[in-house]
Amino acid sequence: MASSESRLQQQPSPKDAADQNFDYMFKLLIIGNSSVGKTSFLFRYADDSFTSAFVSTVGIDFKVKTVFRNNKRIKLQIWDTAGQERYRTITTAYYRGAMGFLLMYDITNQESFNAVQDWATQIKTYSWDNAQVILVGNKCDLEDDRVVPTEDSQRLAEELGFQFFEASAMDNINVKQVFERLVDVICEKMNETMEGDLNLVSNHRNQTLRDSPADGPRGLGQQAAIIFISAVRLLSSPRPVFIVMRPLETMLGTTPAGNQNPDVGERHLVEFLGHLLPF
């Protein structure tokens, strides 16, 4: 079973859903067969509440929770999907743009575990390639009723390339840790993406310098061209993007008086492209 040191400070607020003050927004989906405990898992994490009453989710629902990691305010938009086949067309439409998935099964239900492979195929089909997935065996409090051995789940998770947890929404076991780990792996992938974007900008810069005079600062048009080419390359990629806009004069490194500072412009351009994150 995977484990993770708690690195998130959570500060829940009733205004989370309307709060626009955040550094990043991550869209997460909880998927799996009906009655595996997806809704209870979400309510335990978002509201620290649990009810044993079973009410099947109709279509899709979501909650918002804001967490803090490394001085960054991260807004989690967590979607709870219906597990029934008749809602499958609706729910798969929400896969696009999701940065992370919790693929859940019930350790007391062999059928829900057998369906994991099909759910994994849907993730691969409908989401972007770098979406992060954690396999969650829910209801580990019902050890006496277990029909899915932990070893089988670990083996399947390794085959699929997923991380694995067993958890319990009722007893609040590993609920917080599962979400924390998912946020962590998304942030790790995000950092890799930012490094890739930095290389992309550097390549365009080198090409531009080869085509421009050796002396004198780069012109505003050349810097704008770098932004345009880089943005087109990123926006045309198969991964969805989340853009944090900055004033154009700030990105280009110009002062209010119109003086150009190429170094500042390059730094802000890299920061801008670094915010073209999967969403």
Please tell me about this protein's structure.
This protein has a domain at 19-189: Rossmann fold (3-Layer(aba) Sandwich), CATH 3.40.50. It has a seven-stranded mixed β-sheet with strand order 1-3-4-2-5-6-7, with helices on both faces. The chain contains nine helices and seven strands; from the N terminus they run E-E-H-E-E-H-E-H-H-E-H-E-H-H-H-H. The model is unreliable at 2-15, 214-218 and 234-279 (pLDDT under 50). Helix 6 (175-210) packs across helix 7 and helix 6 runs antiparallel to helix 9. The longest helix is centred in the last third of the chain and has 36 residues, at 175-210. With 279 residues, the protein is α/β, with parallel strands linked by helices.
User: Can you list the strand order of the major beta sheet?
Assistant: 1-3-4-2-5-6-7
- Helical proportion, percent range: 25-40%
Strand content: 15-25%
Question: Got a strand count?
Answer: 7
The CATH H-level superfamily of the domain at 19-189 is P-loop containing nucleotide triphosphate hydrolases
Overall SS class? alpha/beta
CA-CA gap between termini = 28 Å
Number of continuous helical runs: 9
Mean pLDDT: 74
What is the CATH third-level topology name of the domain at 19-189?
A: Rossmann fold
Q: What is the H-and-E element order? A: EEHEEHEHHEHEHHHH
C-alpha Rg (nearest Å): 22 Å
Shape: globular
Assigned CATH architecture of the domain at 19-189:
3-Layer(aba) Sandwich
CATH class of the domain at 19-189: Alpha Beta
